[in-house]
Every structure is written in C-alpha cells, then in structure tokens.
Amino acid sequence: GVAEAWNFPDASVYPYLFDDLGISILRFRMTPDSEPSNDNDDPFKTDWGNIKFDDLPGGYRDLIQLLQEAKKRRVKILGTIWSPPAWMKTNKDVHKGGSILPGYEDELAEYVVIWIRELRDKYGIDMDYVSIQNEPDVMEKWESCTYKPPDLNNIIKKVGYRLADEKLGTKITAPDTGWFGSFLNRASAICKDLTSRGMVDILTTHSYGQDFNNPDSLV
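RE: above sequence
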C-alpha cells in the first residue's frame, strides 16, 4: 500500500505507484475543510449547500483523479481522518490533539457519511474502508485528535450504525494507532465489546518504536 496525505500526486506519478510498486491499497486523508462549519443542527439530515468540497484548497482535483485511477485499477481505497473539523473538537483546532466534544459523536458519523457519499455519488468512487482517526493515541502539532479506548469504541458504534442505516458498504478499520503498545489496549477494548468487534473489519496500527531491522518483532 501507499498513503497520500498532503502530497496530491498528479498523473505523472501513476506509473510509479500502480505499475512499478503495484500497490493494492491506497490510503488518503479526509480533509476537515470539507465541512468548515456545521451544515445544520440535525446530524441525520445533511444540508449539502453548506458542504464545501468544491472550495477545497489546491490539489483536490488531483486527489479525485488519483482515486479514480486507483478504482480503475481495482486498488482498494482507505479514507482516513487526521482530524475532524475544528467545530466538533474541544480545542476548536484541527491541530494539536483535542478530542470530540461530548454530544458531537453523531456529527462525526455524519461527516464520515458525507465523504463516502460525495466520492460515490459525484465521482463514482467507492470508499472500501474508513479509518475514523489516524493515531488516536498521539497528540501532534499537525492535524490530530485523541481518543481513549472507550471513546473510540463509542465512535466506532456511531459510525457503524450510520453506515448500516445508510446502506453503505464501506468497512471500518481501527484503531490505527501510532504505537504498538497503545494498539493493544484499544484493540482489546474493540474485541471485548461484541458490538464494536462486529463493526470493525480490520485491526490496524502503525509500528513506530519497533526494531526496523526486524519488522516482525512486534507481531
């Protein structure tokens, strides 16, 4: 696999990604700029007039073309949230961690659905997987948001139920932690809860802190 985050590669890169590397999965960043303010007060009814995909900063067209090329080549697509929109968060900032404001969990589930439906309905791109949060165990100066295991479980359920209600086939990956040590407690919390366990298709982590000369050392 390969991850696109802020790079927005154009078509000149496609031969290296798809032919030379032969990737089978493409991970991309779901920018929080798509909903800069709450579309309305009802998280179960989207006001598409207040969704701002067409106003996203430079590179969005390249991202769409990249995802379309990936789909044409039958590469799986994984959308990942680095941070929810600032208005959903305790620190009112997409950077420097923070967490979801209590009572805004359904708004986050709506935000996931908005991205899935935008790509599918407007561009014919099916998002195969969604990661609710990149590295929920780490507060970073860039886009980030932290979740304790019970809070992440709660969000998984909110998103899982919403995907089912909307009859969307996108599957959830979690917990997508930065460190293997913090993966264990979040993955255990997911697996011990029968509901969240049934909603997560793949358990995921990054492996910072491992012996890079022996990448299987933490498996």
